[in-house]
Amino acid sequence: MPATPAWPPKSAPRLFVEQKLEAETQVMIDGQQAHYLSKVMRVREGDIVILCDNITGEWAARVGDAGKRSVRLEIAEHLRPRESVPDLWLCPALLKKDRFDLVLEKATELGAARIQPVITRRCVADKLNLDRARTITTEAAEQCARTALPELASPIKLEALLRDWPTDRALFFADEQGSESMDEAFAENKGAAAILIGPEGGFDDEERAAIRAHPLARPLSLGPRILRGETAAITALSVWMARNGDW
Q1: Is the pTM of this model over 0.85?
Q2: What is the pLDDT of residues 160-186, one digit of tens each?
Q3: Average pLDDT in the 143-155 region?
Q4: Alpha carbon separation from 12 to 1, 18, 26, 143, 228 (Å, rounded)
């Protein structure tokens, strides 16, 4: 007997859409997403596209009409609900554009619930194009089959971050002067948490003292080597997810 085709097809393209998805409704795709479907993926009438709305989860949709500038999709089946996201924030200091792009991409893949960029004194950048950053996180979520997007906040200065820090969230921060290991510290934490990562040149002495003085802050060692900002973010996220996340 011939093998039963996989449902949905593994080759089906994936897209996040802003419209809340429901059974037996239609979705009109235009702009860059329409170009991607019609010109890159070359979808035709009857083909399947996987849609996510960051609210209700993942749906299979059938192409009703594929034009040059728009694609009409008909919702066919609800495949799975929006995933449960571990309550972890990543608070990375802004880095050079290509390196911060990597942080955004990998934080999304690893399952961060919120990304809060931070501006410190040694940051080489003090601005972030949020539209571009959201495109990076959305494409990363599509590529790794997530059904949820991380919340992406506007950059904030370190002083404001510490001043307004919520009283119910642990604040772990990577510190080359830290002595407590990530593995041990994360194992003890069972509630809401965040990881603060410094810039290329690290925190200066005054910033480090301010962080250490915060009642919820815990300085952690990332091991015997000095890591780049993007490497430190990816490493810390990976260890936390292995200990307390959905791994």
Answers
A1: yes
A2: 999 999 999 999 998 877 778 888 888
A3: 96
A4: 24, 19, 18, 11, 36
Residue 28 three-state SS: strand
The C-alpha atoms of residue 209 and residue 200 are separated, in whole angstroms, by 18
Lateral strand order in the sheet of 193-197: 151-152, 114-115, 88-92, 193-197, 170-174, 217-221, 180-181
Spatial distance between the Cα atoms of 154 and 156, rounded to a whole number of angstroms? 6
The tokens for 219 are 């300085």
CATH code for residues 88-243: 3.40.1280.10
Specify which residues 209 forms β-bridges with: none
Using pLDDT thresholds of 50, 70 and 90, give the confidence band for residue 225.
Answer: confident
Task: Delimit the domains of the chain by residue range.
Answer: 14-80, 88-243
229, amino acid identity: G
What is the per-residue pLDDT for 187? Answer: 85
Domain 14-80: assigned CATH number:
2.40.240.20
